[in-house]
């Protein structure tokens, strides 16, 4: 018996939804577009981080690990086809933590159809 000849490599599996916009669905300061996320983030930012990790399918403890939100933002960006760099991910989560966590939560809710 002869082995079949492989003529092409299988494609990479798709992640997330088919919505590949190349950019975030909302702006960094668009907190008013989802009042629930904004309120939770304002009252208890760590609760919003844990909520975001959970809705994204990660362990809620990821929000408490140094660099955890940066790693999640990077993975989210790659999964959703959003342009950016790891350096940008680190800067956004470090310098704009509250706003970026709100944006990540909004992105998940929009792509999951929760909004």
TrEMBL record:
InterPro entries reported for this sequence: PLAC_motif_containing
Name recorded for this polypeptide: PLAC8-like protein 1
Family, per entry: Belongs to the cornifelin family.
Organism, as annotated: Oncorhynchus tshawytscha (Chinook salmon)
Pfam family, one: PLAC8
NCBIfam families assigned: A_thal_Cys_rich
């Amino acid at each position: 018996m002869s082995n079949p000849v492989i003529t092409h490599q299988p494609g990479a599996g798709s992640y997330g939804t088919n919505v590949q916009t190349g950019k975030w669905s909302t702006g960094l300061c668009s907190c008013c577009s989802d009042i629930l996320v904004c309120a939770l983030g304002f009252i208890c930012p760590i609760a919003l981080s844990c909520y975001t990790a959970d809705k994204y399918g990660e362990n809620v403890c990821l929000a408490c690990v140094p660099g955890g939100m940066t790693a999640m933002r990077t993975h989210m960006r790659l999964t959703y086809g959003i342009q950016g760099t790891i350096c940008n991910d680190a800067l956004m989560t470090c310098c704009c933590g509250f706003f970026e966590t709100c944006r990540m939560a909004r992105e998940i809710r929009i792509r999951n159809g929760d909004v």
